Amino acid sequence: METLHFYKMHGLGNDFVIFDQRSEKRAFSKEDILNICDRNKGIGCDQLIIINRNSENEELIEFYNSSGEEVYACGNGSRCIANLLMKEKKINEIEIKTKERKLFCKRVDENIISIDMGEPKFDWKEIPLKENPITDSIKYEIDGLTLNQPYFVNIGNPHVIFFVEDITLYGIDKFGPLIENDELFPEKVNVSIAEIDSESSISINVWERGAGKTLACGTAACAVTATAVKYKNFNNQVEIKLPGGKLDISYKSESNIIMSGKTELSFEGHFEL
To answer: Going from the N-terminus, what domains does the chain have, and what CATH number goes with each?
Structure first.
């Protein structure tokens, strides 16, 4: 058995277990990740995050869903890491490096972190999708309710968004796994059901691929905002309401998308593997 130090952090209830492996790298097997993320047997979290060093001796952040698969983007997790590292280094701005992109972060307030998530991708090959879809033909029906007219966007990982009149009618825990595993999505997909509250506010429920129903998802908030600006003539400042709280998103068409919100350190401790 080996004892490892960890941090438990969250952004609006979207929670993470973080291992700092900069001094001594340890390989985590899929079984290790499953055990750590298990809320009954392990520490419990939506994602496991590892802080490593790359070949240039720079910090490199790795993300793993609770199902054990690696993913290349996590907005709330990146904000948590940024807060942790900025406090360690006593700075208020930092660049987070992931395997997919570099993310510039800065401190807005003590625990409010802003992150530049880069430019959204809308081409079907970049989502990626299995084929160029005919959106009018895509429908998902459960218990007499139908989700249709999907929008697709990649914010470091794939997202599909459905706008409805009343999100309380559509169970994300039912529609989520059905859509996540559709063969249209070769890398699976994050699912958001969205309701427009006003010209500057949207409520969403999110199903994360490999993690399931979540209280918050930063990349989903960005994906919904980018879609609303591009296709529904929203202004560039949007408040996204999630079950765990609110995120402020700024996006001008064909530019980078900026997300701001709270992060918190829940506790730290040691775990035996």
So the answer is: 3-117+262-272 (3.10.310.10), 135-255 (3.10.310.10)
Residue 58 confidence (pLDDT): 83
CB contact burial 30-68 (16+ within 10 A = b; e otherwise): eebbbbbbeeeebbebbbbbbbbeeeeeebbbbbbbbbb
User: Which of the following is catalytic: 45, 80, 105, 217?
Assistant: 217
**Each residue's pLDDT tens digit, 7-34:** 999 999 999 999 999 988 888 999 999 9
Active site includes 37?
Answer: no
Q: Where are the alpha helices (DSSP H) in 54-126?
A: 75-89
Cross-strand pairs, 6: 269
Element spanning 33, H or E: helix 30-37
Catalytic residue among 74, 80, 105, 222: 74
Tell me whether residue 217 is one of the annotated catalytic residues. Answer: yes
Query: What does the alpha-carbon distance between residue 156 and residue 133 come to, in Å, rounded to a whole number?
Result: 20
- The confidence band for 61, taking pLDDT boundaries of 50, 70 and 90, is very high
Q: How many CB atoms lie within 10 A of CB 149?
A: 13
Residue with tokens 């993470």: 16
Contact (CB, 8 A) for 74 and 105 = no
Residue 218's alpha-carbon distances to 25, 78, 125, 236, 273, in angstroms, are: 28, 9, 22, 17, 30
How far apart CA 167 and CA 25 sit, in angstroms, is 44
Inform me whether the pLDDT recorded for 54 exceeds 90: no
Angstrom distance (rounded) from CA 273 to CA 24: 15
Percent of the chain that is helix, strand, coil (3-state, to 5)? 20, 40, 40
